[in-house]
Amino acid sequence: MSLEYKRVVLKLSGEAFTQKAGRGIDFEIVNSIADQLAEIRGLGAQLACVVGGGNMFRGEAASKNGMDRATADYIGMLATVMNALALQDALERLNVKTRVLSAIAMQEVAEPYIRRRAIRHLEKDRVVIFAAGTGNPYFSTDTAAALRALEVGAEAILKATKVDGVYDSDPKLNPDAKRFDSLAYIDVLNMGLKVMDATAISLCMDNNLPIVVFDLMEAGNIRRVMSGEPIGTVVHNGTLKEVSG
Fold first, then answer.
1. What is the span of the domain harbouring residue 160?
2. How many angstroms separate the CA atoms of 174 and 54, rounded?
3. Residue 1 counted as domain residue
């Protein structure tokens, strides 16, 4: 099978690790994600992941309840490390060589993030999992995904979600919601669509890095995206195109 993308960064939210509105880690889901990633590795793709921590802790929500924002964000970064280690374990049980690189030093459980080391791991066909965001408060893991993708020379960001693309409104609340199969970066910003945060979208726009938003819950979808099948929504320097929701 030919691949549309040879090196990508997969953005996994913390919510991807658990059931709807749940907390903690659902190992059945993590194992399912690992199965899909192992399949992609078997096709020869170079794969990195950025994981969120919202299933454990949300820094922004904690700060709204009185916690110091920087402290809350650091706790959120630590939550991403737990998810990264769970995903690493699931992958290595499938004999997929994996490295966790953390933006916050914790050498007992993860390697420090070093750009050249990350690229070398990818060249050696290891799955790289980026943890702890950018290592700085006030920046989301969306921004971390855009930053890491640019640093390692990824050809696209794959934004894994629980819906089949980007809509003009919430399809769960509006049965007439329209899904886009193609969006320009500027349309995402102007329309306030929740693809990734504005900083991440701006980074991708300035560097012409495409974002593919797709449904992670359907088995085989990562392979379909990697092979160029037209699923989900592609955000790039193109034009807006709607399809029926």
1. 7-244
2. 25
3. no
